[in-house]
Amino acid sequence: MFLLLAMLTIVTACGNAGNGSSGAQSGAGENTEGESLRDIKVVLDWTPNTNHTGLYAAVDQGFYKEEGLHVEIIQPGQAGADTMVASGEVPFGVSYQEGVTQARTQGVPIVSIAAVIQHNTSGFAAPADRNIKSPKDFEGKTYGGWGSPIDSAVLDTIMGLEGGDVDKVKNVNMGDADFFTAIKRDIDFAWIFYGWTGIEAELRGEAIDMFYVKDYSEKLDYYTPVLISNEKTINEDPELVKAFMRATTKGYEYAIEHPEEAAGILSAAVPDLDKDLVLASQKWLSPKYQDDASRWGEQKAEVWQNYSDWMVEHGLLDQPLEVEKAYTNEFLPTE
Fold first, then answer.
1. What are 144-160's pLDDT values in tens digits?
2. Does the structure show a pLDDT above 70 at 23?
3. Which are the contacts of 233, defined by CB distance < 8 A and separation ≥ 6?
4. pTM for this entry
5. What is the CATH number of domain 2-118+222-326?
6. Domain 122-220, classified CATH 3.30.830.10, yes or no
């Protein structure tokens, strides 16, 4: 259980550093007089960002309402989105393949029902002036992380492939500092999501070198983030899951086809966000939601197997993952 908590800390913190913003926002649509809509909530993994645009678009464009749903988008409590969904407090949430994998092997009944982004857009970023041109150059540098075993395991993997030694990296806990604060203070590189922090660096005019983890091992090209539900909801109320996914799919398809309009929807729903960052991030991310998949949300068994195998190899799992129970494509629309 300690490892699960540690991993949830790293993915949440990485979401903060790479995809975060301040302030909570409820994106619920309004009931129209005379209509009977079912109230449900979906909990985010962190603060709102462009990973979540499809949810906000589905609210704004009335896609949930068309399915008879009144959806409120909420932020996670202290326990986190995985716990809220697993306990049945909310039926749907945003999570990560890392967290779902660890949770499933510990008997936590959450299930991934869609991949929000088809390929892993995270990696290690360093200011260009640190002269880090390959993972081997991490040697002698200071990494800003959150003290999770997964940090060292990923660093060990990609550095080892380049002939580097992870033991020669100094680790510093970033705490609540964001990437831009930390690199000016006491670190040389950190793990970010390019679609948010990398784009922000572009807008700031701060050159960075980016090392996407998926480029070094196919086992690290996992789904992050994903949409999750729990086994109870799936087994007892499959029509709800189907309705939610039909509408959510339309929301992400809208964001794929209309990135500028979708960015406007997110900015209107969450006015604390930097509008220029939201727009630039959305333009970068929209084509990556579906990418080379046959449809938005599609998940592949080999992606789940590869990553769980990697976790076992690095002692991050107590037992192998039952892949077929960790995810499903059953609720994705076929047309």
1. 998 889 999 999 999 99
2. no
3. 88, 91, 92, 240, 241
4. 0.90
5. 3.40.190.10
6. no
